[in-house]
Write a structure and sequence with these properties.
Blueprint (H helix, E strand, L loop, with lengths): L1 E4 L5 H12 L3 E6 L15 E5 L17 E4 L11 H16 L6 E7 L8 H14 L4 E7 L2 E2 L4 H12 L2 E5 L5 E2 L2 E2 H10 L9 E5 L5 E2 H11 L5 E5 L4 H11 L4 H11 L10 H4 L7 H13 L32 E8 L3 H9 L11 H13 L20 E2 L2 E7 L4 E6 L5 E10 L2 E10 L1 H27 L1
Parallel strand pairs: 1-2, 1-4, 2-3, 4-5, 5-6, 6-11, 7-10, 8-13
Antiparallel strand pairs: 9-12, 14-19, 15-16, 16-17, 17-18, 18-19
């Protein structure tokens, strides 16, 4: 069977791809940037990568006409607090129009649970997308999920930040809102199980776990799994704006995403009863077990995808290919080189940089830079990395984005996503047993040049110490 998979580099898409391949399907992966998809570990004979952008109708002609099933796993909630609804509408209309030119029998759409009385901007947008897709000439199956619990999911990582960092939490009143969380394993089982299942044609199904919790109960249960004692006090005085700032500064989320999450968390998301789980013979995983399974994956360094890998930078939307050639003209550079004592050890250190390992030297200064970035509305250092030892193009790495990572070539290239009056790259390259470490900054206007000279003394300390630690 030939399946079109959108959102291939997203949290759900990355996990669904190996399942579809294991079932013997031929998968057409839709990506905006081919360099962002890592096919290592896959048998590529049943994979075809096509580069397109659903916001650009003209780019969709490349979609094969003989597909059987298509997954719509695209969303834009983290892009902007204002325009994500418009972007999602344009994307859905372009998708529907292009799919109607194919032989597709079924479109499978993963949406959010809809509360008919009150909808957040996010859920209103998801419902609008469903309405657009349902007017196509194919059969639409909509699966509506609430909180998804799995290693690397936005909900899981935000709860993890809150529970592991705050012994006492003064929280907004929306923590008393009820939700029905579902394990990522169950979500994937539903997505696979409805393929060409005629019973699901032109219907929508709420999918959730076997329990209903308030967000406060979810946090306390999460703490119990981690064997942590936590106290949560809800305050009625916290406005949505204050709640957004609270999430933004305590967790690894961006302010844009925090605002949209707070808007959604004020609305109860509880499943309407249906028999889909029974029909597909899916055993629903309890919330506590889902949290434990997520930590098992983390401990095994087996996190396939993470929400933080979603493109967060407007510049990156141009594609990695447009950034991989590091400029020299009009740029400031800090170039250093040092002979290696042990090439393998240095390579291991480079591939483990950031996250829990830190930056090997002056980590306090790196943390301060991350804190200042948060204060200015940036992403800070809290994103970390999804694996302590593996890196691939498109991965987030603290406040950097991986543009190029080839261990055999012994080269790692990072692009800065912190708030800057310009653009910055950081490159590590080993040749002839010499480590070349280069920081490049392309300033934007006068403020960019002033910024470079202000931080120059700190760069001298940080980069000198870092290359020394990497090669000792």
């Amino acid at each position: 069977m030939k399946i079109l998979l959108t959102g291939t580099t997203g949290y759900i898409g990355k996990r669904l791809l190996p399942i579809l391949l294991a079932e013997g399907h031929e998968v057409i992966c839709c990506v905006r940037d081919k360099k962002r998809i890592d096919l290592s570990g896959f048998e590529v004979k049943n994979i075809k990568i096509i580069e397109l952008d659903f916001l650009d109708a003209g780019s969709l002609d490349i979609i094969p006409k003989d597909i059987d099933v298509a997954y719509y796993l695209i969303h834009s909630m983290s892009v902007s607090t204002n325009d994500f609804e418009t972007l999602e509408e344009i994307s859905a209309k372009n998708f529907k129009k292009s799919l109607q030119k194919t032989s597709v029998k079924q479109v499978i759409y993963l949406s959010g649970i809809v509360n008919e009385q009150e909808l957040s901007k996010h859920l209103t947008s998801r419902k609008n997308v469903e309405d657009i897709l349902s007017s196509g000439t194919y059969n639409l199956t909509t699966l509506r999920a609430g909180i998804i619990v799995g290693s690397g999911s936005a909900s899981f990582e935000i709860m993890r930040d809150l529970v592991e960092k705050l012994p006492i939490m003064l929280t907004p009143k929306w923590l008393n809102t009820k939700s029905q969380p579902i394990a990522i394993r169950n979500v994937l089982e539903f997505l696979k199980g409805v393929i060409l299942n005629e019973y699901t044609y032109n219907k929508s199904f709420d999918i959730g776990g076997p329990e209903i919790f308030t967000y406060k109960e979810m946090l306390l249960t999460f703490a119990a799994v981690r064997k942590l004692k936590r106290t949560i006090i809800t305050l009625p005085i916290m406005t949505p704006k204050l709640s957004s700032y609270w999430l933004y500064f305590v967790t690894s989320t961006s302010y844009k995403l925090a605002t949209n999450l707070v808007d959604s968390m004020k609305v109860e998301v509880i499943c309407k009863e249906n028999d889909l789980a029974e029909l597909l013979q899916i055993k629903l995983i309890p919330y506590k077990e889902a949290v434990q399974l997520a930590f098992d994956k983390i401990n095994q360094q087996d996190v396939i995808s993470s929400w933080i890998d979603a493109q967060s930078s407007n510049v990156l939307s141009r594609g990695i290919s447009n950034l991989i050639e590091v400029p020299t003209f009009g740029c400031f550079m800090d170039k250093r080189e040092k002979a290696l004592k042990n090439e393998k050890e240095t390579l291991d250190k480079i591939w483990s940089i950031g996250g829990e390992k830190g930056w090997y030297y002056a980590n306090f200064l790196w943390s301060m830079r991350g804190f200042l970035d948060k204060l200015s509305g940036g992403i800070g250092l809290r994103r970390g990395r999804k694996s302590n030892t593996k890196l691939s193009a498109g991965d987030s790495l603290d406040f950097w984005r991986v543009l190029y990572a080839d261990r055999k070539e012994k080269r790692l290239l990072l692009y800065a996503e912190m708030k800057l009056p310009g653009e910055a790259w950081l490159e590590f390259k080993i040749e002839n047993k010499i480590l070349y470490q280069t920081a490049t900054f392309r300033p934007l206007g006068l403020w960019g040049r002033i910024y470079w000279y202000l931080v120059l003394p700190f760069h001298g300390v940080i980069f000198k110490g870092m290359i020394h630690k990497l090669t000792e």
